[in-house]
Specification:
Shape: globular
Structural class: alpha/beta
Radius of gyration: 15 Å
Order of helices and strands: EHEHEHEEH
Distance between the termini: 9 Å
Helix content: 10-25%
Largest sheet: 5 strands, parallel
Strand content: 15-25%
Number of strands: 5
Number of helices: 4
Strand order of the largest sheet: 2-1-3-4-5
Amino acid sequence: MGKSGKRILVTYFSATGTTRAVAARLATAADADIKEIVPAQPYTAADIDWRDPSSRSSVEKRDRSIRPALDHPIDVTPYDVVFVGYPLWWETAPRVVRTFLESQDWKGKTIVTFATSGSSVRGADGVQLHDSAPDAEWKKGRRLAANVSERELAKWVDELGL
């Protein structure tokens, strides 16, 4: 439970482990539970090869209607605030993040996004995801460096008033 008394959950999708590591530090900093968004079909290195126009991620980029199945649902019912983390792929969240968002009832919930990327900045604020959870209260997310410290994350959570 966060300092404000709100129940907080950190969710994340991570293809290579970078976002997973940031999410773990964020969960500690926010005194939050943590759950991984796991696609039913895991992404391989070949799947996320952005240079290959026929890779799975490239195909998903071109077809905005694709919603990869989840391996298991994540129930956000007990939580007031849900952080949603993902790597930036072409300045947006991987489609499996939309699958997760669209699988939940977000009425009365707050969502804050965070994204990891070696180069992209656009897309980290989560604005492009609002249509997948229109009933949520969205707080502006941010891009986080792979080596962001727990202290920096705690400061961000405090700034958010959570």
